[in-house]
Design a protein that fits this description.
2 helices; transferase activity; 90 residues; GNAT_YJDJ; transferase
Length: 90
């Protein structure tokens, strides 16, 4: 993968740095649930797979921490289903 997805707890978002730009997923933790409210990629990174790499890191974090995911963001919901991580859905 190259870059690592980081959990910026101060800003409540997961981040993936790609060059000088950042793809991010805003979240809130609610007990053992991770609510993903929004995924954003800068326009120049759209279509490059950067948001998918970010989501792979979010899913890995959720599995490691034993969390379920509530994807309020349409992209996050679609990515989780398309990549067959339905078992993580709350």
């Amino acid at each position: 993968m190259g870059q690592a997805v980081t959990d910026n707890r101060e800003m409540n978002r997961f981040e993936l740095a790609v060059g000088s730009q950042t793809v991010f997923a805003d979240y809130r933790r609610n007990g053992r649930t991770l609510v993903i409210s929004y995924v954003e990629a800068p326009p120049s990174l759209r279509g490059t797979g950067a948001a998918g790499r970010l989501m792979a890191g979010v899913v890995e974090t959720a599995r490691t921490e034993g969390l379920k995911i509530v994807p309020l963001c349409g992209y996050a919901a679609m990515w989780i289903r398309r990549n067959r991580h339905d078992d993580l859905l709350a």
